[in-house]
Each structure stands twice: as C-alpha cells, then as structure tokens.
Design goal:
- By secondary structure, the protein is α/β, with parallel strands linked by helices.
- Helix content is about 35%, strand content about 20%.
- The protein is elongated.
- It binds NADP nicotinamide-adenine-dinucleotide phosphate.
- NADP nicotinamide-adenine-dinucleotide phosphate binds near residues 399, 422, 449 and 507.
Length: about 650
C-alpha cells in the first residue's frame, strides 16, 4: 500500500485532516489539483468551536493574534455569538484570511509527515475489497482509505457515486472587491429594492455584496461580470461604482445539498464535498474544519485497530446530523436575508424573539458549533406518561395500511420513532405518519417495493437517512416484518403459476430474510424482530398453499434467528393473525363478515389493533423472555 489514506484536496479541511492523521502515525498522501496555494480568501471567520480545534493542535499560535470579528448575525439580524457560552476562552468570532489559515495548516501537515502533491488531479478511483486506488494521470496510488476534501464540485463525490440530494439556488447574491471607490460601510442594509453590504478592507479596496429582491439566479459558468454588479448596486443603493476596478468577482446562491451519506465503503467525504450551502456567517468553513477534526480522530481509530467499522459509522452519523442542522439554519437565514418585503413581518417577529437571552444563546450555540441539538420535542398533544418504548426506533414494513398501520401507531404511542415503510401508496403512508403525529408520536415514511432486485438496499437507504436526520444515528431497536403479498381468493393449487409463486416467496420470505440480515448489523442489543405470519400455516387451506408456504418460511426465519441473536438479547418471534379487518372493501360486506366471523372462537373478525397490541407487547422489555415463539393471534381460529 502506498499510503494509509489519500486525501484529495489541499484546502483547510484536507490539510487539517492530513495533519491529524499523520499525528496519529498514519501515512498520508494529499493530492491537489492547483499547482500553487490559492491566495483567494473566500472565508475569513472562525467560530469558537473551531478555535478550540486549532488551539488543541497548536495552529492558533502559528496564526499569531487574531482580531475579534465583533458580534455576528442571523439572517442579517444582529446576533451576539458570545452568547453561546460567554465564559468560553474564544467566545465570539475571529477573523483570519483563509489563505493564512491554509498556509499554517499546510506547514503543520508537512511537518508531521504528510506528502502533499500539487498539480495532481484525481482522474479515477477504483475501490477494491481491501484497498482503494486513486488514479492521477498515469499514476496509481493505493491506500486503505480515500477522503474527498475537494470542495463543492467534488470529483471524489462524483467518482464514488455518492447521492447528493437537496435544492438548487433560488436566490443569489453578487459580490466583488473593488478598488477606487469611496462608499460608506454598511452591514446588511435593506433598501426597498434589495440588500447591500459594503466593507472597506485595510488595503483601501471595498468588498460589496448585493442582492436585488425578486431576482433569480442567472445561469452561470463563471463569475458575474463587473457590469452586473454595478447595475445591481445602482438598482439597490442608487450609487454608481462603475468607475472602480474589480479585483475579485463572485456570485453565490442559496443552494442546499448534502451527501446522503458521508461514507461509502473505503471512500469518505468531509467539508464542502459533503455539503453545499450558502456561505453565510462563515459557517461552511467552520463546519468543514469540524468534519475534519472528527474524521481525523475516527479514521485514526479505524486504522489502529481490528475490523470494527464503528468509528467510521460514528463519523458518518454524527457529522451528517451536524451538517443537516447547519444547512437548516443556513436556509432559514437565506430566507430572512434575501427575502423581499414579504419577509418583513417574519424579520420583525424574529427580531423580537432575538431579544430574549435564551434565544440568542440557542442560535449562537447553533452557529458557533458550541451548542448541542435539542432533545426531540413531543408535539402539543404530549403524552403525560412515558411509553414503554420511549427512545426506541422501529421499522414496520407495510405500515401504510391494515395491521402494519395499526402496529406503527401502537409502537409510536409507546414512544418509539417509527419508520413507516410501504410499496407505492404514498397517500396512505403519509396518512399513517399524520395519524401518528396527531397523537403526539414521531414517524417518517420510507418507500421501497419489496420483492424486486435492490429492494432491501433501497429500504435501508431511506430508513437510515430518516433515522439519522432525527436521531443522529442509524441504530434500530425494533423490526416488524409485516408487508406481504397475497394470492387471489379462490385460486386452486393447479392454477398457481411459477410467477405467482416466485412473487410470494420474494416478498413474503426472501425480503424479510434479507431485512433481518441487514438489520442485525444495526440492531441494538436487546432489540426485537417480529415476523408476521398467518394462521394458515396451521390449518389446511388448499387455495392458500403457496401463500402459506411463504408464511411457513418466515416462521423458520424466526426460529433459527432467535437462537442466533439470543446472545445479544435480541428476541425473534412470529405472530400469526387469523382473519383481520385491514380496511379492505370485503370487510364492508355484512354477509362476508358474518361468514368470516364464524372461524374465530369469539365469532368475530379481528380488528387490526387486536394484532398490533400483541406485536407492541413483544416489542417491550416485558417480553424479553419470549423468543423463537409462534404467537397465535387468530382469536381462537386454530382451536378447531
Ligand atoms: P394490507 O392491508 O394488504 O397492507 C399491505 C401492506 O404491505 C401495505 O402497506 C403495502 O404497501 C405493503 N406491501 C404489499 N406488498 C408490498 C411489496 N411488494 N413491497 C413493499 N410493501 C408491500 O395487509 P394486512 O392485511 O394488514 O396484512 C399485514 C400482514 O398480516 C401480512 O403479512 C399478512 O400476510 C398478515 N396477515 C393478514 C391477515 C388478514 O386477515 N388481514 C391474516 C393473516 C395474516 P402499499 O400500501 O404501498 O401497497
């Protein structure tokens, strides 16, 4: 192996990471496309948490005394960043040109042993089971891991196939450094036509930033022209800066995108490669440096020991959640800042709220990186008692309707955060989620058709994204395999086609098996797996032979996995309903219901809740001594 880690991108994020990895003994190669360090300083603000990171690594000393950056803002409304923690040694914000920071981080990385190769573009990436190959021109560099710190237009992200969902810009701000103009300094000054900011640098040039209300981003392949900036500035302030000379031109918008995951196998992302956001309040650079600090620690731990991928999963979970939260506050700020007259009432109310110390402290904590996310809040219909599944997470497949919906609702009622899985009925799934939220619970929908290639992978992508956004982790406590395909009523065994059979097996047996296989990695100790079978595995019903065979298979899944997972305190059980009202039209026909009722010892068809209550019980701690069991929830149908 040529290196332990290849870092792509020698910006502040890549260099901080390279230094940290070298400090723990790793061999690091940094590839950088540019032949010389950039002299451009896109970002210049350091927040308290980042100052801690730099101080811990002795980088602050190399930067000399940094000037304080004064109070901050939130969407252009004054925010005292020191309010996050007034006693903090770096309370507030600090000014440091990015080029200066980059140089200090580069010196440190090289001093600690990093091999920084400039003028080397990543042209290919080849991931193997036990290493990754970085291709740059004719060279191939092998390493255990590769990290993309290569910014917004990340080549690593594209080559490794990371999803990068989010929204493109709807609003845009133009900025320029201009020599030879004499205009007053102003901070987020709102005019009837737009927003203007001007700041004179010590060298006498002036940084202007301008947005015309109601304007939409122009299609661009490069920076804006100076004429555009001059026109916008005149439209907003009435001043003519056309006589000046631009030394730097730039446009940025409120694009908001985040990689669906920060890790794919041996490839990881950090900084702008992992998240793209409006550079408001210097948060992008600070977020990136904090990604690097976390990743340095976790990747060093991963390199140091064993086969445990936990540290990298931790990085992905923790930094994805931090990024999502920052992107949300940036989007809120973009609306407050660049919205026209229509946001004035919102700004006024926000401005009033920001006079409260607690609000200042909260927002300052969020921006400075010192705050911790609030614990999940219950909705207004708060439960007055703690549920038995408080703090747990659950996946219920096929939860858009019927027994699955009732189960999802019961688990949420007990306090679990529930992933409501479904195949295609978006409306029904959204209704399940809405019902849960109305009752004060928490849920989110996950769409994935089972029984088709890639089904379980797709399910877990949505599931893990949803969990991570809400809990900062992907830990799962409860899995209910409920979704199932049925056979048409009155289908004689002679008429079952191979396609019918394959479909039943794929949805009812194969998918649950691979769901359990995949889930067992993320299932917490003491977790629960509940497989929904059917009473027809115990009563002969020739019309249901193929369906019953698929349900027999899921009972085998429970039996064998119960033994396998018992050492971790995970229980696996089968629940077998009889005829249960799942809301389908047949249950509206009295004669049909009457006939079906006769099958149960209670002479009734079951309500979906009758089954859901039993599933919910099995999910609790109270049921920890039941595993590998077949639980008859047929209302005595099997008594004969
Ligand atoms: P249901 O009302 O028919 O609902 C089926 C659920 O599964 C829906 O959420 C559906 O999603 C989902 N689903 C179906 N096929 C899927 C696929 N290929 N991929 C992903 N999701 C799929 O079901 P139910 O009657 O409540 O039955 C629930 C469980 O109990 C099943 O395992 C069933 O075999 C068992 N059971 C039911 C009865 C009964 O009388 N109801 C009796 C014995 C056993 P969409 O909404 O998106 O289609």
């Amino acid at each position: 192996m040529d290196a332990d880690v290849v870092v792509v991108g020698a910006g502040p994020v890549g260099l901080l990471l390279a230094g940290d990895l070298c400090a723990s003994g790793a061999r690091v190669t940094v590839l950088e496309r540019l032949t010389e360090p950039t002299t451009e300083s896109r970002a210049s603000t350091l927040h308290a948490r980042t100052m801690d990171v730099l101080a811990e690594r002795d980088v602050l000393a190399a930067l000399g005394g940094l000037p304080p950056g004064g109070p901050g803002h939130f969407g252009g409304i004054r925010l005292d960043l020191a309010a996050a923690d007034p006693g903090h040694r770096f309370a507030g914000q600090w000014k440091c040109p990015q080029a200066v920071l980059e140089q200090a981080l580069a010196d440190r990385a090289v001093r600690l042993g990093a091999r920084v190769l400039r003028g080397r573009e990543l042209t290919g990436l080849d991931e193997r089971e036990d290493h990754v190959v970085a291709v740059t021109g004719a060279d191939r560099i092998t390493a255990a891991y590769l990290v993309g710190c290569d910014g917004e237009e990340s080549t690593v992200r594209a080559l490794a196939g990371f999803d990068f969902p989010g929204r493109d810009a709807t609003l845009e701000m133009l900025r320029a450094d201009v020599e030879g103009v004499d205009i007053p300094d102003r901070r987020f000054e709102r005019h009837p036509n737009g927003l203007a900011t001007a700041h004179r640098w010590p060298d006498g040039s002036t940084r202007v930033m301008v947005h015309v209300f109601g304007s939409t981003p122009a299609p661009r392949s490069g920076p804006p022209t100076f004429a555009e900036v001059v026109r916008a500035w005149a439209a907003v302030t009435g001043e003519d800066i056309g006589g000046g000379r631009p030394t730097w031109l730039n446009a940025f918008g409120n694009t908001s995108r985040q990689a669906a995951t920060y890790r794919r196998g041996r490839v990881l992302l950090a900084g702008d490669a992992a998240h793209r956001q409006m550079p408001v309040g210097g948060q992008a650079l600070n977020l990136g440096l904090q990604d690097a600090a976390e990743l340095g620690q976790r990747l060093s731990a991963r390199l140091a020991g064993g086969d445990d991928d936990g540290p990298l999963e931790h990085y992905d979970a923790v930094r994805h959640a931090a990024g999502a939260r920052t992107l949300t506050n940036i989007q809120a700020q973009a609306l407050l800042l660049l919205g026209g007259p229509e946001v004035e009432p919102l700004r006024e109310v926000f401005g009033e709220l920001m006079r409260f110390d607690a609000v200042q402290a909260h927002l300052a904590g969020m921006v400075s990186g010192l705050g911790t996310p609030p614990a999940p809040q219950h909705t207004p219909q708060e439960r007055t008692t703690m549920g038995k599944l408080e703090g747990k997470t659950a996946l219920v497949t096929g939860a858009s309707r019927g027994i699955g919906r009732a189960t999802a609702r019961r688990l949420a009622e007990e306090g679990a955060l529930v992933a409501v899985h479904y195949a295609s009925n978006d409306e029904a799934a959204a209704e399940t989620v809405a019902l849960i939220e109305k009752d004060g619970g928490r849920a989110f929908a996950v769409r994935a058709e089972l029984g088709v290639p890639g089904d379980v992978h797709e399910l877990f992508l949505g599931l893990e994204r949803g969990l991570r956004e809400r809990t900062g982790a992907t830990t799962l406590d409860i899995v209910v395999n409920n979704a199932a395909a049925q056979t048409a009523a009155g289908l004689a065994p002679e008429d079952v086609t191979p396609e019918d059979f394959d479909r039943l097996m794929a949805v009812n047996a194969k998918a649950p098996f691979f769901i359990v296989q995949r889930a067992s990695a993320s299932l917490a100790d003491g977790g629960r797996i509940i497989n929904i079978s059917s009473g027809v595995t115990r009563v002969a019903n020739p019309e249901q032979v193929a369906y019953s065979m698929s349900k027999g298979a899921i009972e085998q899944l429970s039996l064998h996995m119960a033994r396998h997972l018992a050492p971790r305190g995970i229980t696996v059980n089968s629940v077998a309903p009889g005829i249960t009202d799942n809301g389908s039209p047949v249950f509206d026909i009295p004669e049909a219901v009457e006939a079906m009722s006769q099958l149960s010892a209670f002479k009734q068809v079951a309500k979906a809740d009758d089954v859901a209550n039993v599933v919910a019980f099995l999910a609790t701690e109270d049921a920890r001594w039941i595993t590998g069991a077949f639980i008859d929830t047929s209302g005595g149908t099997l008594l004969g």
